[in-house]
Amino acid sequence: MTTPQTPAGPASGDRVPQYVYGVVRADADLPGEVAGLDDRPVSLVRAGGACAALVSDLPADRPLGERADLVAHQRVLNSLVDAGTVVLPFRFGAALADRDAVEKELLAGNSERLGQVLDGLDGRVELRLKATYVQDEVLGEIMAAEPEIAELSRRLREVPPDAADAVYYDRIRLGELIAQAMERRRERDGQVLLDAAAPAAEAFARKTPAREEDVLDVSFLVRADRRDRFEQAVQELGRAHGDRIRIRLIGPLPPYDFVPEA
């Protein structure tokens, strides 16, 4: 879902720029007093259609991007998710010139499409599964299964410290071989985990692992009435693979990964 862009220039008169966190149904209620950027109150802008925008006044005396801004953005959206309110989250940084612009530019012309996206998210939660290798266990597997790596590692351990420079490239080669072996295992193990968890979800979005030891990083869209079944499947994975893979389930989260980009 394409989000509005930050407006240029300061506010003039009563035109106070509005920061937009996301969109909810027009009949939604805020879960108590929700604090947004700079602890400013969050409110709903309605335009007479099926949807409403979550907004607060945009700070006028500084650029966005501080860690506190990111935390506030996430806090607002998490409060809706925790309250069980279906929400279409916007990425950090969306803003419009004023509340009138929110009504006319965001809501009035996009009400039908925004409503369709909310329908697709209704009764569903995003849960993120992160799996990481227990490195000592997996390195042991590699040494046991890959004779070339095991032999090279043994020889390098026997090199005296004063001769370390002579085997510099051998150490680089060892690191490359281990990385390649980890990649082969990651592809296999990640697919095993995904195949076991995916049937209990409606959709998934797989992310590129950030670190060598990361096996799988994937977000799932799960029906709320099947969440117990999904979590049970993840628990079973933990029991089956826990000696070599640590599995964490995070959420529910704002469903960023299941919102159309445009």
Biggest sheet statistics: 5 strands, antiparallel
In total, the number of strands is 9
Number of helices: 7
The Rg value, from CA coordinates, equals 24 Å
Structural class: alpha+beta
Measured distance between first and last alpha carbons: 4 Å
Low-confidence regions: 5-13
Mean pLDDT: 88
Number of domains: 2
Q: How would the global form be characterised?
A: elongated
- What order do the helices and strands follow? EEEHEEHHEHHHEEHE
Beta-strand fraction estimate: 15-25%
User: What level of helicity do the residues show?
Assistant: 25-40%
InterPro entries: GvpL/GvpF
Family: Belongs to the gas vesicle GvpF/GvpL family.
Protein name: GvpL/GvpF family gas vesicle protein
GO cellular component, one term: gas vesicle
Outline the fold blueprint.
Elements: E1 18-25, E2 43-46, E3 51-57, H1 67-82, E4 87-89, E5 95-96, H2 99-108, H3 111-121, E6 124-133, H4 135-145, H5 147-157, H6 168-197, E7 203-207, E8 214-223, H7 227-241, E9 245-253
Antiparallel strand pairs: 1-3, 1-4, 1-5, 2-3, 6-8, 6-9, 7-8
